[in-house]
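Take a look at this chain, tokens included, and explain the fold to me:
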Amino acid sequence: MSLKQKVDGEIKSAMIAKDKDRLRALRAVKSLILLEETKGGASGGLSEDEEMKILTKAAKQRKDSADIYKQQNREDLYAVEMAELEIIQEFLPKALSEEELTAAIQAIVSQTGASSPKDMGKVMGIASKQLAGKADGKAIADKVKAILNS
């Protein structure tokens, strides 16, 4: 079942349950999917990788907005963003723990033969593809730096 079909099913459930917050978040995700599908030159369907990119981007946007609202003491808007983030994360694969991320990056480093910070680009290219949706890009980059500098 595609992401679009899952979201459509969840939208119906949210409408029946009259859950306005969930409905708003799901409609935002559906909107992103439809925009990507109809973008110039798109084939109409999205691959699983493209779906993960859309969800990851949406989750990152919510997290960044929530951080800004928290800094500005806007608890009302912070709560809305965090609620939407939780709903979006339901569709993402489970995030890697700190230990799992370290182990995965160490495996990639040994696989590529990287030994110094100069090899960061080579490691990041593979790590970003393998860990997409499972870890934040900044967390991956920070971990790669730490491993290559040690």
Summary: The helical segments are 3-17, 20-38, 48-71, 75-89, 98-112, 120-130, 137-149. The two ends are 43 Å apart (CA to CA). The chain has a mean pLDDT of 87.
